[in-house]
Amino acid sequence: MSYEAKLAIFNKIKEYDRIFLFRHIRMDGDCTGATKGLQALLKASFPEKEIHLLDNQSSGYLAFLGEDEKEAEDSFYEGALAIVLDTATPDRISSGKYTLCKELIKIDHHINVNPYGDLLWVEEEASSCCEMIASFYDTFKDSLTMTPEAALYLYTGMVTDSGRFRFRSVSGETLRLAGILLNQGIDTDTLYAHLYLNDFDVLKFRAEVYRKMKITENGVAYIHVTEAMQEKFHLSREDASAVVSALDSIKGSLIWIAFIDNGDGTIRVRLRSRFVTINSLAERYHGGGHAMASGATAYTRKEMNALIKEADQLLGDYKANNGGWL
Ligand code: AMP
Fold it and tell me: Looking at the domain that runs over 2-195, which CATH code has it been given?
């Protein structure tokens, strides 16, 4: 199944002279690594083709991976192939320009709630979309050229989307493919410095988060990062949102949630869990995502409180009916 999907995509890539790559809004390491990685891989493999990646987003901690192209005339997209990476639904694609292209390919590892595109290759079990691109390379390596640059992009996405190779989705195959990339000569000291170093204010903010976090009766840990907190600690929205990982290691707290004021009255919700599946909960609050990492939006505080209550019930039910959790 996966081989046929990969082969169809490989053949389609060979057919086109001009290809545009797309990623999702709120760029992260995986969609950035997968788009940049595939771009570098295809450029090195097919120097005669034009492989474009246009995106007006920017992200502080990923800035070290470099800028993308910023603008192109609409006519430029005509007759081209669009490949959308790491994006479950079309409404989350960061640019609507993919609609101008002649054909569309979806490559993704999220739950396939919306199977869009003329061709699609979705591996819900893959730990990252970058892992899929690494596997694409491995399958057709006799016809493709990997470069140290492409390997760095793809490895970055694999590392960031798998919780540093920690999540259950990481398989032996994940590590084998990561090994192929590492052997290209990645400077992991520098990479991890980019991923781990924090500004002083951000650490002060973390201390405040540990002071203010709350826990429900059944163990849902949560924090509301208000507009005021974001101003006090001079946080970018991205820094404020990263806080969800601060709640990830509380014993018995199998679900943890960060609520981040968006500045327009709405609240971004970042849900994470271990053992318990939470994407259906996110779907009930205008969101979705993976079984154990989902996103949603609360339009009012009332909705935020309702979500906390539902999460608490979900966790209570889980604990009552399952053993072996920590
Ligand atoms: P986040 O907390 O924003 O990093 O989201 C975690 C996961 O949930 C990501 O893999 C997203 O693809 C997915 N996700 C986030 N927000 C939404 C949304 N509004 N609708 C569907 N999926 C989402």
Answer: 3.90.1640.10
